[in-house]
Structure formats: structure tokens, C-alpha cells
Write a structure and sequence with these properties.
Layout: E1 3-7, E2 13-18, H1 21-24, H2 30-44, H3 103-119, E3 123-126, H4 136-145, E4 152-156, H5 161-167, E5 173-177, H6 183-188, E6 191-195, H7 196-205
Helix pairs in contact: 2-3, 4-5
Length: 207
């Protein structure tokens, strides 16, 4: 059972915490993580691209010259793909890129990503994280105290408006809720900052 230190917002160690083996100490499955990252990026695609085919471009209704006798290659329309101003062959059209990944793969990927953070010493557990009013300066001070890297993901057990407002002007720092974690965000950020309450929430949700 992995054990990690717990810090307060001043960067002082206050206790140790045991993490569940079946969440934070599993065999890292890189294939599952890759599939979930690919799925996350695909689901984010808008799929609004649209280019006109030869049936949609304007003009070209008349045959440009007669079929035989001119010495030139036969042509049926000046809007064929090889003409300037012609349509595009196999033009991309609006489509939905999203797809679903099996539930077992999703859970395995999350557990693998969390385990990798523990193995790489990139997890920082806080006893609690709360500030009385939204202040970016205060949040920067806390991140410096706990020695978080410039790219950090903060995981809370529930939504906290003061925290969310305090970090929105800090580049490369994001906040999320324990039950909405995704593999892409876990792997993207160098520091995985999570509150003690959020740890228990993660263990409950992804057990």
C-alpha cells in the first residue's frame, strides 16, 4: 500500500496517508492510457469542417468544348477537381468524431495514470485547500509553498468557486473535481495536486 506525505498550504508536512492499492498501485497499462487520450481528443473535435465537392461549386454546367476534333483532352466540366476553381475530391464534410471506450478500459486507464503519478513522485496531497476570497496572488503563493511545477492540476472533492476564480489567471494551472477526472488531464500536468478529501472521493468513485 503506497504511503505519501500530506502537506498544508504552507508546504509543511502534517501527516502521512495510505493510498489504496487497487487505485494507486496497479500495473501501469500504457495501451489503455493511450486509448483514453485518443478518445478524449477525438471527442473534443468539433467536426465542423466542410469543403465543396464538384456538385456544389458554382458554374461548369456546360461542356467546355466538343468531345472530338479539337486536339485537346476531353472535358465534361470546368468545375472538375483538376480545374482551377473546381470541386474537391472526397471533400471533408461535417461529422461526429466521438466514440465510446469500454468501461473496464476507462477504469484501467484512470488507475494506470494515477499510479504513474505516484511512481514518478508527481502527486502532492494537501490536508485541505480553501481560501477566504478569490485571490490569484494567494493561490500563486500556495503553489510556490508546496513546490508545484509550472504545469499543475488541482483536484478537489467538490466545486470551490474561490479556488476556481483564483487559478483562472494562472497559466498552465487547472482545477477539476474528483469524479470528473480524465486520463488526458492527469498525464498532461506535471504536478498532480489533490486534497485529502478528494483522494477518498477518487478511491470511492473508481474502486
Amino acid at each position: 500500500m503506497p504511503k505519501v506525505n500530506v502537506y498544508n498550504i504552507l508546504g509543511e508536512q502534517v501527516e502521512d496517508i495510505d493510498l489504496k492499492d487497487d487505485i494507486f498501485d496497479v500495473e501501469v497499462n500504457e495501451t489503455a492510457m493511450y486509448e483514453m487520450v485518443k478518445n478524449h481528443l477525438a471527442n473534443r473535435r468539433q467536426g465542423t469542417q466542410s469543403v465543396k465537392t464538384r456538385t456544389e461549386v458554382r458554374g461548369g454546367g456546360r461542356k467546355p468544348w466538343r468531345q472530338k476534333g479539337t486536339g485537346r483532352a476531353r472535358q465534361g466540366s470546368i468545375r472538375a477537381p483538376h480545374w482551377k476553381g473546381g470541386g474537391v475530391t472526397f471533400a471533408p464534410k461535417p461529422r461526429d468524431y466521438s466514440y465510446r471506450v469500454p468501461k473496464k478500459v476507462r477504469k484501467l486507464a484512470i488507475k494506470s495514470a494515477l499510479t504513474s503519478k505516484v511512481l514518478n513522485d508527481e502527486i502532492i496531497v494537501l490536508d485541505e485547500l480553501n481560501i477566504e476570497e478569490p485571490k490569484t496572488k494567494e493561490m500563486v503563493k500556495i503553489l510556490d509553498s508546496i513546490k508545484a511545477n509550472k504545469k499543475a492540476l488541482i483536484v478537489m472533492d467538490e466545486s470551490n468557486e474561490n479556488i476556481m476564480k483564483s487559478i483562472r489567471n494562472i497559466p498552465n494551472v487547472e482545477v477539476t473535481i474528483a469524479n470528473t477526472l480524465n486520463v488526458y488531464d492527469i498525464l498532461k500536468y506535471d504536478s498532480f495536486i489533490i486534497t485529502k478529501a478528494a483522494v477518498r472521493k477518487v478511491e470511492e468513485v473508481y474502486a
